[in-house]
Task: structure prediction
Amino acid sequence: MTSPQTEKQFLKTYNIHDYDLPLVSVDIAIFSVIDDKLNVLIVKRAQHPRKGKWALPGGFINLSVDKTIDDAAHRKLAGKTGVTNAHLEQVVSVGNSTRDPRGWSVTIAYMALVSVDAVVLKKDDSSEEVVWTPVDRLSKNHNLAFDHSKILESCHKRLKDKVRYTSLPVNLLPPDFTLTELQRIFEVILAKSVEKKSFRRRILDAQILEETGNFRGGSTRPAKLYRVTDNKTNHFFTRNIEGTR
Amino acid sequence: MTSPQTEKQFLKTYNIHDYDLPLVSVDIAIFSVIDDKLNVLIVKRAQHPRKGKWALPGGFINLSVDKTIDDAAHRKLAGKTGVTNAHLEQVVSVGNSTRDPRGWSVTIAYMALVSVDAVVLKKDDSSEEVVWTPVDRLSKNHNLAFDHSKILESCHKRLKDKVRYTSLPVNLLPPDFTLTELQRIFEVILAKSVEKKSFRRRILDAQILEETGNFRGGSTRPAKLYRVTDNKTNHFFTRNIEGTR
DNA sequence: AGAATAGTGTCTGTCAGACATTATGAC
DNA sequence: GTCATAATGTCTGACAGACACTATTCT
Result:
């Protein structure tokens, strides 16, 4: 048949299964700071392939459940942590013929920033264990299944880049926090110490925080508690923070 | 059968076609500056769906030809422009159930920066026309097929962001260029004028250019020609350029 | 009072913006 | 010489780093 076809006719005869398609999954590096260390959530795979190996949480897009790839990422995040409103950001997509033994595969990698005490770890039938692990024990070595060490590295790099010119790390803290706690988060990600006065000036001048009116008391001078002003969770500075040493 | 399975056995019985998979494509916003305007390459679709409509160049990953998604993007770029070594950068992936009438579909969007005189426009059986169009005539309106206006907007935003803190726009020029020409490129993307002295100081201090020794002569004082020092095509500045007005 | 942490005052250095000035070509 | 564009000199302002200082709590 060579007569022109309408789009409707075209779609009627079009069959997805006539073509070879890659597998498509979503993987997430879920970051939190625990005991002054950047941690990432990893799961022990309960299913083939790479059964028994550690990997980033993730899995295939479920075409009947997920309306969008962001939905899929949120579903995976909530499935492992119970967290539904974390900062979730697409980082990179990786696709090639060799990364998954099941065939040509594409994964869309996300990073999530959560406060550790907002998380309730949950296993499911895809993962027999779910644990926080310090990133510095994983990044470089090839400890994770598939290419997840590489993917983690990309996400870690994105986070390290953004800490220098955004206020994004506020998402790693609970709603109320002190400036010292916030500074500590920045120092942990930067892996450098930060000068106190410059840090406070930078954050306070950006007008992204407001005082809660409460204080965190220790055995020393109590510190003012702050919270993020509505929708100011990702301020971009015009100059990088570099830190000292 | 409930006895434990090896990975090999698992893979033997695993069949991709047992699962519903999204369509996966690559789309590219190929940018160049022509007549002091930021242009993007668009194609008139020769095939259904959206036949006859304008769209970004792109198409499905070919599992037997492309080893990686970057390969696929390079293939599409070369197919329309003949350019094989341009700056090509992954921007964002978009996937949902509604963007393509053929079904649940994911596209990995790239942007490419090319010098217009390195390009030889080529049609093929997927596109009956291939043309440069000023971005400001497309961005906001919904002129492009599928969600390509949105995707173009994401790529345009990435470019506008990067012009403020990187030297990336050098990729929009031919190998040899004057500082005034480079400044013009920055101004076009920023949509702002840039102060000459600051611009030169910024670029020259970054040590990303070297003098060719030649000059571009007009009817006025000839300008020094520069080229990019090897592998210095994407310098990151610690402070943003903002421009005036 | 002393220890410890919170928070400020203020100087310096770097780099972008502003704008005046000089340099070099064609005519 | 004039005109046009290339290139520089130099002042200002914004903001990060350094570091000494003060403030507030507990014991």
User: Anything to note?
Assistant: The interface with chain B takes residues 5, 7, 10-11, 14, 16-17, 19-24, 48-51, 60-61, 63-64, 67-69, 90, 92-98, 101-104, 106, 108, 165, 238-240, 242 of chain A (CB under 8 Å). Residues 195, 197-199, 201-202, 205, 217-222, 237-244 of chain A lie near DNA strand D (CB under 10 Å from a C1'). Residues 6 and 12 of chain A are 10 Å apart (CA to CA). The two ends of chain A are 73 Å apart (CA to CA).
